[in-house]
Design goal:
Number of helices: 8
Organism: Niastella populi
Oligomer: single chain
Protein name: DUF2892 domain-containing protein
Length: about 150
């Protein structure tokens, strides 16, 4: 498994997310192309776990800097801790807030894309794509970039 976040998440959390993806695909399999397209647009807007961590940790770090400027320098410990978490996440794919955000249902970009491309298959985006070859490269590119 290449996904460091999934590797460092509880098996139960990964299974819950996979089951939700499976349920969504099953739900949309019986719906029309307009509904599938709307869901794909929702997925394009969904925040992945990396974005959530970046915004969360940046907000906490900026709060610590502001508090240190207006109250006391001891607040600088807050951004120092957060930067440590950022480094830990960059190196290991895990940091203390990760389990909480996974429990809240935040997914990796790969998990979001798994649902997105399954919906594209259901919508028929890949029907015109044949075998490999230079002729089909444009059809493949068009299919994977279609909204």
């Amino acid at each position: 498994m290449k996904d460091r976040v999934r590797r460092n998440s509880a098996t139960e959390q990964n299974m819950n997310i996979d089951n939700e993806i499976r349920e969504k695909i099953t739900q949309y399999a019986s719906l029309d192309k307009v509904a599938i397209t709307n869901r794909i647009k929702q997925l394009d807007e969904e925040w992945d776990i990396e974005r959530v961590l970046e915004v969360n940790m940046s907000s906490i770090a900026l709060t610590g800097v502001a508090l240190s400027a207006f109250h006391h320098r001891r607040w600088l410990v807050l951004p120092a801790i957060v930067l440590g978490f950022f480094a830990q996440h960059a190196i290991q794919g895990w940091c203390p807030p990760l389990p909480l955000f996974r429990r809240l249902g935040y997914r990796t970009r790969a998990e979001i894309d798994k649902e997105k491309y399954a919906l594209k298959v259901l919508r028929g985006d890949f029907n015109e794509v044949g075998g490999a070859g230079e002729k089909n490269s444009e059809a493949v590119f068009a299919a994977v970039t279609r909204n």
